[in-house]
Amino acid sequence: MQKIGVIPGDGIGPEVIREARKALDIVSEMHGLEFEYEEFPLGTAHYLDTGEVLSEETLQRLSKKNAILLGAMGDPRVKPGLLEKGVLLRLRFHFDQYVNLRPVKLYEGVPSPLADSKRIDMTFVRENTEDFYVGIGARVKKGLSSNSFDLKRRAYEAKFDVGVELEDEDDLAYQMGVVSKTGARRVIEFAFQLAERKGLGLVTAVDKANVLTEAYGLWREMVEEVSAKHAVAKEFQYVDAVALHMVRNPERFKVLVTPNMFGDILTDLGAALQGGLGLAPSGNINPAGVSMFEPVHGSAPDIAGKGMANPIGAMLSVALMLETLGHEKAATDLEEAVKSVLRRGDTRTPDMGGKSTTAQMGEAVVSDLKRK
Ligand code: NAD
Ligand code: IPM
Ligand code: MN
């Protein structure tokens, strides 16, 4: 019996998780898998009702689970970042889910924004606990110019263009990115092992080492160190060039390993290439701990409550969860059912140009599974 913590969350989160759960129930029945679920009402409503974002007790309970399935966090009623940082990032950090695994696949039958349909099948291994996500930063106010960073002076000396005339000379903000040897090494190792295991011949290491020479210089050293131990080809690419190549010749990429922030941005581009944010899955993985699976998209307040959300990203996240929990056959069956629904193309939510509802899309996958 494996235990799953379910956090439907905000906006369309509960809508897509409902469909993902239906598919999970069928596929586990078919494969004789037993899961025990516990739902956690985290999110904006819970915060507004109780003032609590995420308690120690909830973390304790979640730490006893084999995996977590999450919908989305974020709501225009509260300050940006409160729930995203307070729940989502807190969980990723607390459980040290250092890999953010984001496969980008263009399935047959899915309209792609690229003119001629290219082979798109790449996997992002995004670092998930460091970089600009560590939360080190401050606003430097008047009177603090003797601050050890003395950022203003250094900024001016470097002729750093802060973009606007500073009203108050000392009024500026900074936020730092951190790359550690251990943090970089472990996620790069994961990427090379994945490429090796799946027979994918190339790892692209993404950075901006031509500008952020300290942090991504260290990142590059770790790529050199780790790649020397593996029989997989590697290349270095700057993040801006990766954005270009993803559109111009996406077929060249197999596995990409990225620092946290670049991975965040590039995987939304990836989601667009694979037919839309509604289709993209992800896993926050700690290979030796509690992993958490969630669609790449957010709470989509613009379509929440309208039955328009595409549940495919959430369903494919369930497939990733099954694979990570060791149920490969069940994962493949679920992915195949999704594929055949997409290939048929008669059930499509509005983001894919159709008129089907979230529930109809979910039902289509469920009935395909039942036909097996
Ligand atoms: P978003 O992903 O919620 O939405 C971006 C656009 O994509 C919207 O037009 C939305 O309607 C559409 N979209 C997203 N998911 C869809 C789906 N399943 N089906 C159809 N269309 C879909 O990003 P945003 O608008 O930048 O952010 C909204 C809120 O979500 C913010 O509070 C943000 O911080 C949060 N957010 C949370 C997560 C997460 O929980 N993992 C991820 C990204 C953003
Ligand atoms: C994502 C989201 C999150 C991130 C936010 C909501 C904290 O954009 O999962 O891609 O930046 O990682
Ligand atoms: Mn994102």
Describe this structure in words.
By secondary structure, the protein is an alpha/beta fold. It has three domains: 1-112 and 281-372, 3-Layer(aba) Sandwich (Isopropylmalate Dehydrogenase); 136-175, no CATH class; 179-273. It has helices at 13-30, 44-50, 56-62, 82-94, 151-157, 181-197, 213-227, 239-248, 260-273, 312-324, 328-344, 358-370; strands at 2-9, 35-39, 67-72, 99-105, 121-127, 131-140, 172-178, 202-207, 233-238, 255-258, 281-285, 291-295. Strand 8 (202-207), helix 7 and strand 9 (233-238) form a beta-alpha-beta unit. Helix 1 crosses helix 11 (328-344), helix 6 (181-197) packs across helix 7 and helix 8 (239-248) runs parallel beside helix 9 (260-273). The longest helix is centred in the N-terminal third of the chain and has 18 residues, at 13-30. The radius of gyration is 21 Å and the shape is globular. The two termini are 24 Å apart.
Principal-axis shape: globular
CATH topology of the largest domain: Isopropylmalate Dehydrogenase
Which percent bin holds the helix content?
40-55%
Number of strands: 12
The CATH class label of the largest domain is Alpha Beta
**SS class:** alpha/beta
Overall pLDDT confidence: 92
Low-confidence segments, ≥5 residues, pLDDT <50?
A: 144-148
Query: Going across the major beta sheet, what is the strand order?
Result: 2-1-3-12-11-4-5-10-8-9
Head-to-tail CA distance between termini: 24 Å
The SSE order reads: EHEHHEHEEEHEHEHEHEHEEHHH
List the total number of helices. 12
CATH superfamily placement of the largest domain = Isopropylmalate Dehydrogenase
